[in-house]
């Protein structure tokens, strides 16, 4: 029988949650790296026991940890993320030029085919790659040095590269997103990149339809339909059916289209999940009711999913990397909150229950479906 | 040759797999702050980048160096450490800023 392993990154350590395929009873292991911030952990699709974790601290900087046994034991690997050449500058909050400075790894995306290859999205925004299981990291400088790089500007959370999507059908394709620069795509394995922000409208920047400057919060893709991308922007939920060349707004009847997390059903490429958040200045659910919204029509028509979720006095946030789906037939959906809850739905969102209520603030959730 | 004692914050000891509160470094080079940090990172590679920024080699902002009840954080990297630190009588303390809340 299949089992599920959730990799949960929090403000104060990492936790590994496991259950059988029923997803009713869970064991919680951790905290690993207690006291450190774990922005993201992810397992290799080619070897589920190979995990990578981004461990960081305001005191001690960045660490990368690697596990070869599914998270039971960990080994620190190389933590040197040096920009290629002289980094140059991007825009600071006040519009002045600011030198590129490495701060942390936001997202780790292991290769679909090679456990020793993994991509890292970092702040200040750049792409790094290892091909030796984390023993060394090198930048893919074509992104940072692309024509628009000097114009990129950080969002409140920093100039972070937080989303990396790999495409089994197009092995040379990589889609990434940066707050607050926008979305970018490479069709040559990361050598060159182009902004893919046509159709985005951001009223908080001087030119709302600018080529870059959009605060993209997250992008999700169903591997079976890789040209279709779903985006949660600062405001607006968007979709593209041509790998990001053009975007269309699909917020439809959402009560608010601000949010961070977005994901797609494993077996239904037009079924999308978001967690609406009240506004950019009030990062909590509307009216104290924690609601996941699901569209079965690829957007525009959304339904609230509330069974098992708190509908009174709930003022948590769900961050961009804190939602995941498993690949079991009835598609489990998971998300973690800044209040330390991790919720699971074993039935595609129809019903929810809390695996745990009391973790530190959750930064990321990834789901592994194990044979 | 001298043996320099270095006391580390708990998070760094755990990261590097160090039992106890301090490490003892056998120094062949003169015991300067820079030489001790070099020796520490050579003995415990997991500490690279944690005390000094990889790129700038500057001390991380929330860490300070103390010896003999003196803050020596601003001591030049090539300046000699106090004799009692160089001969192991007193430890070099690497202290992390306290965090509340």
Describe this structure in words.
The complex is a heterodimer of chains A (371) and B (101). In chain A, a hairpin with a 2-residue loop joins β1 (3-10) and β2. Chain A is built from no helices and 30 strands. Chain A is globular and about 50 Å long. Chain A has a four-stranded antiparallel beta sheet, with no helix packed on it. In chain A, strands 4-5-6-7 form a four-stranded antiparallel beta sheet, with no helix packed on it. Chain A has 371 residues and is mostly beta strands. Chain B is globular, with a radius of gyration of 13 Å. Chain B has a single domain (2-96), classed as Ubiquitin-like (UB roll) (Roll), CATH 3.10.20.30. Chain B is α+β, with helices and mostly antiparallel strands. Chain B starts with a strand and ends in a 5-residue tail after the last strand. Chain B has helices at residues 10-16, 33-43, 83-86, and strands at residues 2-7, 22-27, 63-67, 70-71, 92-96. Helices cover 22% and strands 24% of the residues of chain B. The interface between A and B is medium-sized, with 15 and 17 residues.
Q: Which percent band covers the strand fraction of chain B?
A: 15-25%
- CATH topology category name of chain A: Methylamine Dehydrogenase, Chain H
H and E order of chain B: EHEHEEHE
- CATH architecture verdict of chain A: 7 Propeller
Shape of chain B: globular
CATH class of chain A: Mainly Beta
Percentage of residues in helical conformation of chain B: 10-25%
* Helical stretch tally of chain B: 3
Sketch the topology of chain A as an H/E string, one letter per element: EEEEEEEEEEEEEEEEEEEEEEEEEEEEEE
The value of Rg of chain B in angstroms is 13 Å
Q: Which percent range fits the helix content of chain A?
A: under 10%
CATH superfamily of chain B: Beta-grasp domain
Give the end-to-end Cα distance of chain A, rounded to a whole number of Å: 7 Å
End-to-end separation of chain B: 44 Å
CATH homologous superfamily grouping of chain A:
YVTN repeat-like/Quinoprotein amine dehydrogenase
Largest sheet of chain A: 4 strands, antiparallel
List the domain count of chain A as a whole number. 1
Q: What is the arithmetic mean of pLDDT of chain A?
A: 97
